[in-house]
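Loading example: each entry is read as two labelled lines plus one structure line.
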Amino acid sequence: MAAEEKVLACRAVAADQVVNKMVFRFLSRSDNVSLARLLASAVAAERDTTVAELDEIKVAVSEAVSNAIIHGYDNATDRYVEMTVALTPRQLVISIHDDGKGIEDIAQAMKPDFSSIEQRMGLGFAFMQSFMDEVEVNSELGRGTTVTLRKNLP
Amino acid sequence: METDIMVKKYLHKDWLWVRPRGELDMSSAGDFKFRICTAMREFGCRNLWCDFSQLTFIDSSGLGVLMGRYRELAPLSGQIIITRPTEQVYKLLLASGLHKLMEIDRPLSMKLSKEDM
């Protein structure tokens, strides 16, 4: 393909079309949290992301996967967390899914709670929201939770 | 995963000095907390000095441990100081509001870039 044609082909990709996608499925072990955030940031690094942006992505993924293990699975280590990392022309889209117990009141769960001191100060969702551009939570009691994180890319 | 944590009693004014190396998340936060609590009891310290120069990552699990130590030490008039944080860690300390409760040093890289300009 000539260079000119290649440029045209790139432009034809719609803004929300997935250009690359990876799915990772791993045991709900706490030591997999670091691996998950590393994988997500490695995919994001395909683009011209800054070190600060990669750090933000790592924190958001760390919080979402920790939530899945701690709240979704009550720290059970034999369940599975599924992380999908997709790149569209403008965004990095990360979904973190567990088949755990689900969240009864999503709005309540997303509020920072400084009284639960040892339990991460309730900052998990607050960090996801401040470090990503969009956070979407879908949950069904007894069925599980999916958190979708979106970050606009340069 | 176990974080490599160096703990020693600083001889002045019952300070405990800790320097965790690596990353503090839900897999290492429990060990970090245990090492601090054990040493503080053993040495009878009520002030905590965290050297975060070797800490490359922290999330809410690690911050929760610091908050927990603050809640424990504040009634004893103990204090916590954090020195030499990396930029990622510094940013999270500010985002969590912990800088209002403890003395936190600015990262060396931020100091340098400001003075250089």
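The CA atoms of residues 105 and 139 of chain A lie 9 Å apart.
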